[in-house]
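2024-03-11 09:14:02 DEBUG pipeline.ingest accepted 1 chain
2024-03-11 09:14:02 DEBUG pipeline.ingest length=311
2024-03-11 09:14:03 DEBUG pipeline.predict start
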Amino acid sequence: MTPLTLPAVDASANRRGIIAMCTAMACFMTNDTLVKIVSTQLPAGEIIAIRGLFATVLVLGWVFAMGHARDLPRIISPLVMTRAGMEALVAFLFISALASIPIADITAIFLITPLLITALSGPLLKEQVGWRRWSAVAAGFVGMLLVVKPGGAGFVAGSATAMALVSVVFCALRDIVTRFIDHRIPTIVVTLSTCATVGLFGLAMIPFQTWVPPEPKHILILLAASVVLVIGNHAMILAFRGVEVSLVSPFRYSVMVWAIVSGITVFGEWPDWMSWTGIGLIVAAGLYTLHRERVRLRVRDAKTEAAATIP
């Protein structure tokens, strides 16, 4: 078997990954808000199947519009299919838990992912993660806790929390697998595999759950959710292709900014002083991570230049 290899990473790729990650977080929070609205009325499998159908049709049209129809056979690549399977498990566990857990609390649980990825990026990706980057990730995590206050009375323990925690593990593994996908496979094809597999997984779950006839409002909400989900999935895949995973992953914390926006505009919930402090920590941690990346690249380039001048 040919060993997995990783392409070299440059600063522009990392910047692209960071922008894509922030975009994905905005889209996912919009999707989560819409799904939360219907999750108390429709079972998880039904939500995933309906949303997945819309998303698959949208992405398939996107594939043909971009001229990538010839790349469709690559959808059966083992790593692409592995990622899609993990995404299906993440979606099912997340939506099942979302019906019972406040959206801020489940967001808090999911923001454990960057810490897990940072821990795994050393042994699995051979990335050097120093104490400064660990400190920035930890600061962002503390900021997230200040925003969502998961120790409050609204935090739900039990099976729903357990499902959310298991989904975090699959989420981290999914993102690491993405790093290894052949760069010649178009990102939109990887997105199609994700949408189709998740939709089929939801369809397979319907016989095991009580079918609830969806109302027109449910269909419209899930159609809107599918649009932002497609954009978010595409951005998330782009965020982890050809980048330094442990650098890009902490920008997942930007989802808390979008969570605050969602809380204000949808639920009329304004942040208190502790939440604003947490948002400040999240932003500061992200900016410091960028600063450390610039310093590291300058040091690396200086060493390379010095080595090149040695006769």
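2024-03-11 09:14:41 DEBUG pipeline.report The mean pLDDT is 81.
2024-03-11 09:14:41 DEBUG pipeline.predict end
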